[in-house]
């Protein structure tokens, strides 16, 4: 079977692998989803029951057969709510009993309360509803057209990674819920995605008691319209809000009785604020954890603070706060994901929250090279390890310093074992990698395929095999595949990320071209007279821009669903990097493929371009058609491919690049 077809059937070798791992707060069990085999798309819910005092072995058992679209459990993992095609099931995780739950129509985002007695869910009508222990389905909030309760609006989901819109109180008696009014966003259209410079949905926050009480949460929503993070585990709720231009934000504590807010911390950056995942949150002693940037006294780091006190050393690039672990003297330690000097690797660190005379203290828990993630509950730590030595995430379960179990992997292994050469190049120390064809013989010159993303928030050069499986297929089709994380990507330092502010195109194209030159000195088999470039969405924009602006470097390009016109991007995404269109129309013009395509080629060589669109996405197809019209007008060679299935799309892209490079 050819790689493109096998990749599609195995979902790039992820089917049959454990994912969505959750640990009970007391460490008694580990929950996860997994399908039955390498080509089975149907996830079931599994639990690993762990021995407590008295010994015994960990037991893995199936608790609910799939298909399961999503699940959520109470903190102690006693009850789980499962959703499949809008149907709701309740699982008693202690006994394994599964029961269908009658709901008022299709169900989304179902979540048990912390006591495990009620289940809240969202309805298609924009309602937030609660199913009581006796089975009664109660409407908690709902208004109808243009207003929805308890959901994360499009901007929050896509641009701030806030995927929830309601949160249970720790006692299970109150829900903190968003009210989203998108009446002013693209009126009359089904897709309510505000465009750069346009009007966002109005988002407010409310405390809803199960007995019908209602309290509004108060903050200056005109000045700080973006609600980017919410936490309510202990103490009162904590929220993070940002200004429209995202250069200033507030961490606010909410009084659950009155809805009044108090400022706990300010976030500020002249370019944009980048909150740390997993923050803000409370410590048991009442201090508030906030992730932010340390950019003075020579430091250039993403760190963690507790009420303004530094908890992590500036050498760490903090990525996420996972949770709390038992610590000495009654003060909890923190489990965090971070990089320490090598951006291609991510490791787990244990961070002290009790600061003594010795200052900050952290200990690295994962030692093998690779990309590590974690989940924690009680004294149980589950480590997900990805590396260049194997495909997929290998999950191990630890109690204290002892490994007590593994989560079984049922996924397939690809035939090829890619061995990317990871590098840091140019005076900017750009992370880069080269993948050669299997069995490559030194001295054989190869055309280069620059396979890029390059977008802010996305990192491609990582020490994990999954990042290179498809790239190995491209290499085995006759290319030396090069990937470069230009400035603007995470993992190195805040200044490395944010230097692209309002000048994405120039900085990123310069970095990609300079990295190619630097790599050719270390890899003489790279033929820089034959360089192709390809990318998807942001990477598609950069690939198309490369052949339009730098045809002397890039011979041809494949642009999959590219950003054609930044003015058509979402508000938060476009404005974070380019500002508002009204304030800098020349910036938007400089970053537009339409403007670049309209420029006469002159005497420069003209590089062919293949533009790929998903036929099921009418917005993408329309943008691609706009670009094609301008390219035709200026006699620039290009082809269109309307195909989403990788089994057909990848061979078509390969054939185009082979004949064009």
From TrEMBL:
Annotated Peptidase S9 prolyl oligopeptidase catalytic domain residues: 470-643
Pfam name, any one: Peptidase_S9
SUPFAM superfamilies in the record: alpha/beta-Hydrolases, DPP6 N-terminal domain-like
Dipeptidylpeptidase IV N-terminal domain: which residues? 91-276
Quick one: signal sequence residues?
A: none
Superkingdom of this entry's organism?
A: Bacteria
What InterPro entries does this protein's entry cite?
Answer: AB_hydrolase_fold, Peptidase_S9_cat, Peptidase_S9B_N, Serine_Prot_S9B/DPPIV
**What is the name listed in the Swiss-Prot or TrEMBL entry for this protein?**
Peptidase
Which species is this record about?
Answer: Asanoa siamensis
